[in-house]
Structures are given as C-alpha cells and as structure tokens.
Here is the input.
Amino acid sequence: MTGWPGGVPDEEKTTVYQRPPVPVPPPAPGPPPGWGGPVPPQFPPQGPPPGPPPGWVGAPGGYGAQPNPYGVPPKKRKRWPLAIGAIVVVLVVVGAGLYFFTPLGSNGSNGSGGPSNPFASGQDDGKTPGDVVKGYLEALSRGDADAALSYSSEEPANKDLLTNDILKQQIAKMPISNIRILNVDTRPMGTSSTVHVAMDFGGQPQDFTVFMPRTSAGPWRLKHAALKVDFSSQKSNDPAAFKGMTVFGKEIGDDPIFLFPGFIDVGTSNPNITVTAKPLRFAMVGSPMSSGVDLTFAVSDAGKKAATDALVSAFASCAQSHAVKPPPPCLAEAYSDYQDGSVSWGAPDLSGLGQPSLGAKGLTVLFDGIVDVPISGMGTDGKPLQGPSKTGSNYIVDLGQAPPVVTRQY
Here is the structure.
C-alpha cells in the first residue's frame, strides 16, 4: 500500500507490526526501558547494568514480569530433625523420672519380674528386706539372741543384756507369733526399704513398720537389732527415784544399755517404791535414736506404812507440848480462843485421809484429807474449852530423808 493516501510509511509499518524475538531475561536487575526517567537504585550496583538485547521493546505500563530487585529468596530449611531431637529429650527425662521416683516391688524388681539391679534386690545373699525382718522376729520368738543379732549391720556397744537367758525371759512374758510381712516398699537403686509387718505380741495383734537404710552394696540388714536405752536424762531429773533402779536385776549406771524390743523387767532396791515399764516398741528397731522407757513409779506397801507412820509420829509429837502452837514436827495448832500453855492434845484420827500416792518427783508421798486431833484447855474467857484443833488438808511425806520429813498444806 505504498503511496496510499493517509497510509503509514513502510518504515513505520515495520516498526509497529514487526513481532520481536522472545527476549532472554537479563541476569541482573535493571531499570526497565521505556518507563520514563530512570529510577534511583535501592542498593549500590555491582557494575554497569546490562543493556537490553537488540530488538527489545519495553513493556507497556502494567504488563510483563518485572525482575526481583532482591534476588532469588533462600530455600527453607527442613525443621524435622529439630522436632525429633526435642521428642527424644522429653522421652529421656520422663523415663528417668519414672525410674527414680516409682517404688519398686518387694524384691526390688522393675515390674517385669526381674531385679532392676543387684544392689536393690539383695541378691548378694538371696535375702530381701522382708526376709530379713521376718527372720529377725523369728529368731527373737525362739529366744536365739545370736541369730537375732546376725540380722544387724552394726554391733552393739555391749551385749550384757543381749543373752539367750534374758531374751527367753522376755519371750516368756510376751511371746511373739503369727509373723506376717504385709508390704515392702524398696526405693530405686536399693537405697532404703520400709517393711510393714504384723504379728501377735503378748497375745495381742500388733503391726508396725521397720525402716532399713542402706549405704553399701552388702546384703540387706537392719541398722540395729537391739535398742539403745539411755536413762541419763531421767536420772538427772529425779535422782532419788532412780537410785538403786535395776534392769533384769542389773543396776543401771551412767552408760546406755542395749536390749531387744519387748518386755523389760525393771526393779529397784528401794523398799518404799515400785517401778514398772511399758514394753520397748518394735517400731524403734533399726532406728539410730536412743529409745526412751516409759516408767511408772508407785508407793509400795512398805512405803505406805512408812509414810503413815511418819504422819502419825508428827501429830503425836503435839502431845509433848501444852502450847497453842506446838513446835515441829507437830502439824496441828489450837484456835486463838485457847489460853497458851493450857492446851492438852489427844490422839490423832487419820481415818479421814485418802490413799497415799507418790509425788511427781522424788520419793515424796502425798496424803489428801483431814486429820482430826481433839484438844482441851482453858479459854481466853477463863472457862474450860474443848473441841477440834486446826489442821491442814494435804500432807507431804518425804521418804527420801531419814527420818522422813512431814509437811502440811492448807
């Protein structure tokens, strides 16, 4: 159509309608041509930007893919190895917690029937904690002192009272039978065990727990097979009552003694008092602490007579005087309406007194009640007068002194 009026010259036709070849994307970002003025670079260029390839026609506004000015984004890292590692750590921590804080069975087993370790199971001699406690009690029940002591890991300081003869005296008074292990709780790694046991003791059912600590890899044993009994604090608090006190016929000194649990025979060489003791508790077996003894002191028949005689003697001494208030040991006095020096004292009547009891401390005997001592004399008005005298309501006789000393309380 060359020369066609109003047509477009051939050169322009070629420019407008000629299809350019498919361009290859430039390797580096650069300002797209044909978009007007150049855009200031966001980052310093590493070199001169490459020019457009021959025949490239700039894309109209809004068309065509634009190059990423920040380059190709990095690949995402795979996170599954970290997740697996975290799960493994959690499983290890939970497993360790279950192992160390879950009680084992009676033989230190791990729940599957086999021992978790030799130290916990006691397999070094085949005896479990329950076997040890039962064997110990059986040895006591048949009066075998040496066998009972063999179940302990420590030797007592002295064995004076740990003999077959004394043990048989204990068992004769309070026999042991029907021994049963109820439960055994052994800690992981065999560091300790608690044995719950039941038995008949002195004809009465009894149950208790025995704690067994363990500090070495040896066989399971009781910490102590005999109880350490220390009377020192009780003696210092009440020396008069403890003077002459005996245990199985042996007078106690200042040092602790060792006894098997159960019946304890206590006595005293003092004829004015008696003493008894509660049995030593089996729950103290294995304890490193000294065991106390629950003692009960009472006035003996001889002591009651001695105290009563001392009281009668004190009132009888009043008759040796005609004063309104005779000197000690007289425990009575006349009322103020009697003339001093005119009073005659009669025999005391002690029928109003209650039974004597031993005081809380020492060898003091207490009497509660009224003693009646009749008197007669001349009144302050010059007329004859007779009636009761003034006495107390409580009397204390100290048998720890010779002769006994009597005091009164109103």
Q: What stands out?
A: The domain at 118-225 is CATH 3.10.450.50 (Nuclear Transport Factor 2; Chain: A,).
